[in-house]
Amino acid sequence: MSRRKWKSSIVPSAIMIGPVVLWLGFFIIIPLLYVFIMSFCSLDSHYNVVFKFTVSNYQGLLDSNYIHIYVQSLIIALITTIICIGLAYPFTFYIARSQSKYKKLLYMLVIIPFWTNSLIRIYGWRTFLGTNGWLNHILQYLHVTNGSIEFLFNRGTTILGMVYCLFPFMVLPLYTSIEKLDVNLLEASSDLGAKKYQTFLTVIFPLTVSGIFSGSIMVFIPSLGYFFVANILGGGNSDVIGNLIQRQFQSGNNWPLGAALSIILIAITLLLVKLYQKCGGDMENLGV
User: Fold this and answer.
1) Helix H or strand E encompassing 52
2) Is the predicted pLDDT of residue 288 greater than 80, yes or no?
3) Collapsing DSSP states into helix, strand and coil, what is residue 49?
4) Residues 279-287: what's their mean pLDDT?
5) Which residues form the ABC transmembrane type-1 domain (predicted)?
6) Given 3-state DSSP classes, what are the helix, strand and coil percentages for the chain, each rounded to the nearest 5?
7) What is the mean pLDDT of residues 105-133?
8) Where exactly are the structural domains of the chain?
9) Whole-prediction pTM value?
10) Which residue, among 284, 286, 261, has the nearest Cα to 272 in the 3D structure?
11) What is the pLDDT of residue 3?
12) Over the range 150-189, which residues count as b (16 or more CB within 10 Å of their CB) and which as e?
């Protein structure tokens, strides 16, 4: 290829992908590199970050207090994921296979929460569940309770907030996988005498397991980092890893340790995505 032809082919490509590369480099790659480098930095006597490299930040992650939060985070994320699967699967299956004129409306109801900031919606739950909130007023009006009940500031309300925020992330990949189901396979299963639960276990579930897996990743990973849900609804009684990172960058003023925690969280994300790929998952379901 002549030099002129090479220039004529490379220039249009550079014009098209150049802005994207610059955008990704400036807003994603460089910040991630900065966080990675900071995770190996040290603090001086005045809690200022100094570029004296050490691995003590990663060693500090093995503190028993932190391990308690890791375990608690995993429990909250796992329960949140299981609840989202249990609620989202029948709901999504009905939407995806329904011929009703309300199909688009039901799907839109899943998307609409994205139009409002999740922080505002979580504060709405705090108002609803508070001692002077609507729920307590309704229970007292119906004479179910004699006084106010404290629903907030426990693990249960934290999980409720997580499920509320992350439910759509389970529905969307499930919808994609369920909608792709071949109707002929379902009819063939019925013709061969399989009952509905047998059709589900042997045909429907195996064909939609990729959607369940991708939805689980999209719910499980954010559950580890949604610190604002644990702060507002949990009141500090059900912290997740995100709360630990937040405190290191704010009140703890230990940015290197916070950066190390962030790198570990990123590593968990990449590990789960790689596992998803190994299992033959469709990366489009993860938005990749």
Assistant:
1) none
2) no
3) strand
4) 57
5) 70-276
6) 75, 0, 25
7) 88
8) 60-286
9) 0.87
10) 286
11) 59
12) ebbbebebbbbbbbbbbbbbbbbbbbbbbeebeeeebeeb
Alpha-carbon gap, residue 89 to 97, rounded angstroms: 12
225, amino acid identity? G
pLDDT classification of 285: cutoffs 50, 70, 90 = low
Kindly give, in sequence order, each residue whose CB lies less than 8 Å from that of residue 49, ignoring residues fewer than 6 positions away: 38, 41, 42, 43, 255, 256
| 43: phi then psi, degrees, rounded to nearest 5 | -115, 140
- Burial (0-12, 13-18, 19+ Cβ within 10 Å), 245: buried
pLDDT band at 263 (very low <50, low <70, confident <90, very high): very high
Whether 219 contacts 169, CB under 8 Å: yes
CATH no. for 60-286? 1.10.3720.10
Report the pLDDT averaged over residues 98-110.
81
Integer angstrom CA distances of residue 18 from 3, 6, 15, 32: 21, 17, 5, 20
**Could you identify the residue written with the tokens 């719910």?**
219
In contact, 249 and 257? CB cutoff 8 Å: no
Phi and psi angles of residue 22, each rounded to the nearest 5 degrees, phi first? -65, -45
Tens of pLDDT along 145-159?
888 888 999 999 999
- State which amino acid sits at residue 195: K
Query: Which tokens sit at 264?
Result: 């570990």
